[in-house]
Design goal:
Blueprint: E1 2-10, H1 27-37, E2 46-47, E3 56-66, H2 74-79, E4 86-93, E5 106-115, E6 128-130, H3 136-143, E7 148-151, E8 166-177, E9 180-187, H4 194-206, H5 214-221, E10 236-242
Parallel strand pairs: 3-10, 5-6
Antiparallel strand pairs: 1-3, 1-4, 2-3, 5-9, 5-10, 7-8, 8-9
Helix pairs in contact: 3-4
Length: 243
Amino acid sequence: MTNVLFGVSYLGTNYAGWQKQDNALGIQEVIENAMQDLGIKNPEIFASGRTDAGVHAKEQCFNAHINFSNVQKLPLALNSKLPEDIRILWAKKVDDDFHSRFSAHKKTYVYRIRIGEVESPFDYQYTTYLNYNLNLQKMVDSAKFLIGEHDFQAFCSSNTKTPDYIRTIYNLDIKKTDNLFEFEICGNGFLYNMVRIVVGTLVDVGRGKMEPQKINDVLISKDRKFAGKTMPAKGLILKNVEY
């Protein structure tokens, strides 16, 4: 058996998230079925993290212990069995004890918001549309309070079960090009819905519902009700994972 690390890109629109489920189609199940079609028996893949229903990935990573004669040919072989909205980018051998989730050091997400009354058919699947403008500088000022190691309990789903809520944000960059805002956030890990709630809170600042310094008060509160709304899944893209 060889431990193989894969890079995969996908549009999450047609799937109930990454994880295999009993009553819905997850991306994990689609990939494992493709492996079985190649003669790989009982494949079990382990992702760097689970994306929610409708969330996309430019480069997600997963590993699997499998028997296959030529690892370099796996991407081409798997892509011939996969739907067009899921593509294996690369594959390489890694150490037996490597785990795509527990060996990861950094993850970077991008959230896209376009200001406009009408959704474009060319990007609506991976962009959230808002019909009001946002103040870029206020959002940039407020993002500074989130950099570093903090307890992010206020910025995750209220039913999140985890031993601790401490996470480290290394960078949180916000850029505007014409009517498109892109929020890029890099951290050592993220809680359930954390990125979408962070962006929702920054949007409240950008539209004038919250002052930038109030972000720090939300952190200190550790209370979900003081943060902004959870933004729609379709605007979220997992950009890459670093090991």
